[in-house]
Write a structure and sequence with these properties.
233 residues; alpha+beta; nine-stranded mixed beta sheet; six-stranded antiparallel beta sheet; 3 helices; 15 strands; globular
Amino acid sequence: MDYDAPLIPAVLERRYKRFLADVQLRSGETLTAHCPNTGSMLGCAEPGMPVWLSYSDRAGRKYAHTWEQVGVANGIRVGIHTGRTNRLVGEVLDSPELMPETAAGGPARAEVTVPGLPMRADFYQEGDGRFIEVKNVTAAVDQGLAVFPDARSSRGVRHLEVLQALVEGGTPAMLVFCAQRADVHTVSPADDIDPAYGQALRRAMAAGVDVIALGAEPTDAGIEVTRRLRVVA
């Protein structure tokens, strides 16, 4: 996935009201950017952190700048824009190296309502009838471990319950964690943050829901999915 233009560097002053962030550009100018992440952004929203923004002059936008990435320890960049995640995964659904489970699944449609169940799946593969849900992972603990979610998520639990119901009814279903950071090799449920999510994830996996994780690397120019990660639940 390529950005329309190189990102703009800045420094985070504060993130507030979930969707807003005040940043300072290298010129010294301070502006408010849209924050496209509804989670707590654990470890990714401390004042003083370097951030990178995209810019759009599209008519009707209240804030022309969007927060795309943040710099954490050891020079690692983290992609915090949850809206980018589906595109990243969609680009590799047919990759036999990165996603052999879906490579032969046929064309995929985005944002498809699951019949009779309370969920819009991120993808539906028309060849094998597989529903796919995607989650963006930003929170890392240490030693290459990333966790999800970074805040309690009743919506995430509900999605797992729907995926489990699909599999139990004979329909293939998959959950894909996508970690937009280069320092991660393992993804696990954040039991300390949301024990209900961890329990639901383990139930879904035991029922036969495919759960995989991908690692992506953000740069000024774009983000690329580069590797598979382990899932330990």
